[in-house]
TrEMBL record, chains A, B, C, D:
Phosphoprotein among keywords: no
Domain HTH tetR-type span(s) in chain numbering: 1-61
UniProt xrefs under PROSITE patterns: HTH_TETR_2
DNA-binding region range list: 24-43
Biological source species: Sporosarcina limicola
Entry keywords, A to Z: DNA-binding
Pfam families from the UniProt entry: TetR_C_26 (PF17934), TetR_N (PF00440)
Gene3D superfamilies from the UniProt entry: Tetracycline Repressor, domain 2 (1.10.357.10)
Classification via SUPFAM superfamilies: Homeodomain-like (SSF46689), Tetracyclin repressor-like, C-terminal domain (SSF48498)
GO molecular function: DNA binding
Annotated InterPro entries: Homeodomain-like_sf, HTH-type_Tx_Regulator, HTH_TetR, Tet_transcr_reg_TetR-rel_C_sf, YvdT_C
The keyword DNA-binding is annotated on this UniProt entry: yes
Name of the protein in question: AcrR family transcriptional regulator
DNA sequence: AATGAATGAGATTTCATTCAT
DNA sequence: AATGAATGAAATCTCATTCAT
């Protein structure tokens, strides 16, 4: 069994349950079923876990997105699917997103953050590029920065709902609909 | 002199300088010029400062926004001014925003958060309402949820820039321009 | 209203509820309905309360004893009444007795202790003196030390019961009966 | 080397020297020769030491009693030896007895107290049983409750002397003599 | 006499980290 | 590689006491 992976898994679980600040290394090792000292064979500190956690989270995000978004669907449909996917990830992992955010921010691991998140930005960027090439969205769009804006917009919209309560599916449906309309206009979608 | 206020002021300052994790209560009281025990007269812990800090931050935001946005300007101009203002606040206080976010999230003060942010949401909502009444933006807009989307979008765009480095004015200018165009289409602004 | 008395009353109440160690001066003043600083106008410290509390306790004890013991009763009857009275006091105030004991012990107020308890010792001593004069108990008895032994014996017997639970009336009845027989022989009572 | 035992040993020593109130945990760990944090590995607080201390104290008492009381001596002689032993223990450890008493009383460890004291009660009870079988004491005696009365009587008599001053050997001799006579009659000893 | 906010020395407590096994 | 008891520096927190009002 891979101890490093066990540590990361356990950390995600414990962080979600009690927050990053209140979590002691001893909580993590207990959850991982390993000895206190073993932790230090793999990570020099609590914060150094963050990039590894971030990586796992981005993988999860990508998995959910790719499971949700149909390759052959039209761009407008794909866009609503992306929104669905991001809402889903936010609902299930918003505590982790927050802690990655503040955990990375409070260290010198910041540069790794961009690298880690890059695959998701790129993937959306590519979708936008295709849509632009197909003439489905306005031609004035710069795909790279716009991809980031879209992801930021949707994530923040989802957080506004799920920050308080992850059981808000009614609210979430309304918010998603608002986001879709907002995006349709922002991107100048022609149907 | 109001000690409670002094504590909050000092906490914001010290948190900005050294981050929330590295800040000891003793740093805060030193900066506030009060005795260690006095802190506990007003706050039971470091995290319980968060709602009070959030309140001050929203006040600061409102002040900057109202100083930046001209009352008589047209809505499109006001919108770019709102974007400028949010970027400004984010640049100067992104550490605080991050910590409010994770600080609130890791406690049970979540419900207070909506209340605290409400004035800002409302203010933008009113601007949108006026613009809608004047026929400047598309009539299909629901002003309340859209106000939240707009603020979330701009904040997340600003954070993408300033999270790494608050000296990125060139990058910021480009990002703001992207946001403005994005918003112009999203809101269906007619000039 | 007499503040000093209010403080002593409040202290007894709070000490009984939470023990001497866990009781802060702030708890006492809160219960007494006075300001923190006022305490120090009457007592220089928490432990300096002890002699005053002890005095009140001995008064209570004497009151109960004198209400229970009939002046005209024969000595053997009076003795069982004394046992009843001490059991009663111990049941209701054993926490206080313990804290007076340790409270006085941990200070330099020890000398006051003897003075404070003296009236009770003396009263029992007088009863023994009378009984001796009446030839009801053995003539070899030294009344003063024996009075102390009797009180010590009965108190310790009562504590053995009530230390754990003040609702032990069945157990208490048995124990009292044992004490009475023990004392009857110890004192050489002739009936 | 057993750290838990070292802590209890050190605590008894330091408590005797400076009293329970004035003793800091840091004093205990210093005396035990361990690190501050190690204390918390074994005990959550100063008061939680009490049951462990009580146990050691009862062991010490038993040891002294068994060293003092001669197995082949007649019961009357054994009884005076028991009195001697209890006076000795009280002289040397009255501070500890007081603190066990109030320390146990102020916590929820009360139930353990009976268990801890049981061996001593039983041992005296057995002596009484033998004496009763040998017809040396009155046949109406119930050995178990009487054992407790005897121990309580002697302890309280000893405390009356040594509470104030452990150098009172003259007083102690007189008091012991009083106790012996008192007991001789109470138990109906036939010589 | 009475108040109670403020104090700060000093206690408790935590927990990341080490290291002998 | 793995362990986990032990560490102790460094933090939090308490609360008796003061003192300006």
């Amino acid at each position: 069994m891979n101890k490093k992976e066990a540590i990361v898994r356990a950390a995600i679980q414990v962080f979600r349950e009690q927050g990053i600040d209140k979590t002691k290394i001893s909580d993590i090792v207990k959850a991982a079923g390993i000895a206190q000292g073993t932790f230090y064979l793999y990570f020099p500190s609590k914060l150094s876990l963050m990039p590894a956690i971030a990586e796992v989270m981005v993988e999860k995000t990508m998995t959910i997105v790719q499971e949700t978004v149909q390759v052959n669907a039209s761009f407008p449909v794909q866009l609503t699917q992306i929104v669905d996917a991001i809402f889903m990830v936010t609902r299930d992992y918003h505590e982790i997103q927050a802690l990655i955010y503040s955990g990375l921010a409070s260290t010198e691991h910041l540069k790794e953050w961009e690298t880690v998140y890059a695959p998701f930005y790129n993937w959306v960027s590519e979708r936008l590029q295709e849509a632009k090439a197909d003439g489905i969205i306005r031609q004035s769009i710069n795909v790279d920065p716009t991809a980031k804006l879209v992801i930021g917009l949707v994530e923040s919209a989802a957080e506004q709902i799920y920050l308080y309560d992850s059981e808000q599916e009614d609210q979430a449906r309304i918010q998603k609909s608002e986001v879709n309309i907002f995006l349709k206009h922002a991107l100048g979608i022609r149907e």
